[in-house]
Amino acid sequence: MFFLLLSLTAFGQGFLHRDGQKIVDGNGNNVLLRGLGIGGLMVQEGYMLKTADFAGPQYQIKQKITDLIGEKNTEEFYQAYKKNGLSKSDVDSLAAWGFNSIRLPMHYNLYTLPIEKEPVAGQNTWLEEGFTMTDDLLNWCAANKMYLILDLHAAPGGQGKDANISDYDETKPSLWESIANQDKMVAFWKKIAERYKDKPWIGGYDIINEPNWNFSGTNKNGCDETKNEPLRALQMRITKAIREVDTNHLIIIEGNCWGNNYKGMFPLWDDNMALSFHKYWSYNDMATIQEIVNYRNEYNVPIWLGETGENSNVWFKDVISLIEDNNIGWAFWPMKKIDNIAGVTSVKGTDGYYRLLQYWKDGKDKPSVEEAKATLMQIAENFKMENVVVKPDVIDAMFRQIQTTETKVYKKHALPGKVFAAEYDLGQINHAYFDKDVANYWVSNGGKRSEWNSGDQMRNDGVDIQKCDDTMTNGYAVSYIEDGEWLQYTFDLNSNQTYDLSIRYAAETQGGKLYLTDEKGNKISKEITISATGGNTIWKTLSLDTVKLKKGTNKVRLYFEKGNFILNYIEFKQPTIKK
Questions:
Q1: Looking at residue 575, what DSSP letter applies?
Q2: pLDDT value at position 267?
């Protein structure tokens, strides 16, 4: 009873907490967390840095760098990387875009030494770096009235054999093979709780990310289907340690098998808990979340989609609509990756960095220490918020498109002039564009992986966009065009106008057909058949037809009756006056 009274008193002061099946604030208001995971900051993963072919977990990445430029230079790089990877401007930007929370994936080794490096076995040396980074982030979140959820992403020893996500080194005892590592993890969380127990903008403690361990030794898929007692026991032990010093904060637990296997995890052991689940590459229907919803109903506990993303804008809009309709909050993944279309930002790679990656991959053309360091320091510089490429289409899909089918301009087009094909309107599929391949559903469709944007450039919709080498270009062209696909562009005119149309395109074969329609599908130009240009890098201009546009807003669709060509731009010219 004393514990319960303490908790209720604390909740009145503004802490997020469980109220039956809901997460609520200190005033009892339902809180729908809309968050982003700052993946790659404290725990590097190879795929984010494009090193996965030769170095997946962070310790391997760091060793590659150290072997090339030395320990001192490596430390200088990592300090710049961490400083630039997250700053107040990042948090301010996330708040401005609509996020109300951040999930911080923590690496334990920024807070305490690994067990093999402890001067006295069984004791814990605390490191200020991780705590300072967390303090700074919390202050930035509080200034924006955003919740910070602390996620132990890399536990002592590593919590799963999927090494990339937990920095697991198979040559050392894992979390599950070492009582000393488990003791350190318990001490870590108690230390965290002591430091942040009175901080209301800490949204909760996500105490172990994506455990994936085969506890019984019989399952070959990398984790056990039923024998999750060691996972439950450790999370119970951590909860007890947290509650010794902190009765304020929500505790979030995860199941085995990358967070979703809760067999053997019940009954729950604390009154202020939530269940996290992760969702990737599956259909966005009730069937895919029914099990976790059933747990919510059966055990009267809130649920939270603690990690999702790495897919198309169509998938993003659909998954958010699905889970918010079921009063489930979410945290997408991640914020910054190198040359990435599927995130809210993209870090620009450099020619030097791609040469460095090639050296690490094949061992040829080794750069000098000076050259390699300069390359890495430039990449660290590119991680600054002011240097990343912000992805308006992704942000639009996550916030605006879940509320409306209305389209809006991606870029204002001045007519007469050239309209680059890849600068079609922002909006949902079937409203701003139509494409036949729109998302990756490989988990649900039997392991068949599919690309939504086959060119993997510029935008994250289903529209296929590739780099363009034409003499006049915005750098991108629409490609892999299939029959029946279309793109919409919005033009605002001060008066009725008539324009001559032409397109700039490349095609290996003839037979492509296209025409313009209004937003209702009514033709406003003649159908044109295009001829071959001699190759997909040989560009040609083809005159189409005259089109009449009205005063005011015009939503014009470019309809591809037959595809199999590449489109750079459409040009609208004032018609030639015949004498």
A1: P
A2: 97
Q: d(Cα 98, Cα 488) in Å, to the nearest integer?
A: 26
Give the pLDDT score at 182.
Answer: 98
**DSSP-derived pairing of the beta strands 486-493 and 34-37:** unpaired
- Write the secondary structure of 474-514 as one string of H (helix), E (strand) and C (coil): CCEEECCCCCCCEEEEEEEECCCEEEEEEEEEEECCCCCEE
Closest CA to 261 of 297, 300, 301, 221: 221
d(Cα 21, Cα 300) in Å, to the nearest integer? 5
Distance CA 323, CA 387 (A): 33
Task: Please give the full DSSP string across 260-278, using - where no structure is assigned.
Answer: TB-TT--S---SSEEEEEE
Distance separating alpha carbons of residues 410 and 424, to the nearest angstrom: 6
Environment class of 41 (CB within 10 Å of its CB; exposed 0-12, middle 13-18, buried 19+): buried
H-helix or E-strand spanning residue 552: strand 552-562
HEC secondary structure over 333-378? ECCCCECCCCCCEEECCCHHHHHHHHHHHHCCCCCCHHHHHHHHHH
CB 539 within 8 A of CB 568: yes
- The burial of 1, by beta-carbon neighbours within 10 Å (0-12 exposed, 13-18 middle, 19 or more buried), is given as exposed
Instruction: Select from 234, 295, 246, 297 the least CA-distant residue to 272.
Output: 246
Give the tokens for residue 557.
Answer: 């669709």
Q: DSSP for 407-434?
A: -B-SS---SSEEEETT-PPBS-BTTTEE
What CA–CA distance (Å, rounded) separates 335 from 390?
Answer: 10
How far is the C-alpha of 18 from the C-alpha of 199, rounded, in Å? 17
Tell me: the pLDDT tens digits for 54-84? 999 999 999 999 999 999 999 999 999 999 9
Nearby residues of 476 by Cβ (< 8 Å), 6 or more positions away: 420, 422, 455, 457, 458, 465, 466, 467, 468
pLDDT band at 9 (very low <50, low <70, confident <90, very high): very low
**pLDDT (tens digit, 9 = 90+) per residue, 264-293?**
999 999 999 999 999 999 999 999 999 999
In angstroms, the CA 150 to CA 265 distance is 21
User: Residue 205 has what pLDDT?
Assistant: 98
Percent of the chain with pLDDT over 90: 93
Q: How would you classify residue 299: left for phi > 0, otherwise alpha for psi between -120 and 50, otherwise beta?
A: alpha
pLDDT in tens, 105-148: 999 999 999 999 999 999 999 999 999 999 999 999 999 999 99
Output the six-digit token pair for 18. Answer: 């469980």
Residue 104 phi/psi, 5° resolution? -100, 110
Instruction: Compute the distance between CA of residue 518 and CA of residue 390 in angstroms, rounded to an integer.
Output: 30
Helix axis angle for 179-196 and 229-243, nearest 10°, is: 40
Q: Who has greater pLDDT, 446 or 482?
A: 482
| CA 565 – CA 108 distance, rounded (Å) | 51
Measured CA to CA, the distance from residue 508 to residue 423 in angstroms comes to 24
Write the secondary structure of 282-296 as one string of H (helix), E (strand) and C (coil).
CCCCHHHHHHHHHHH
pLDDT at 442 over 60: yes
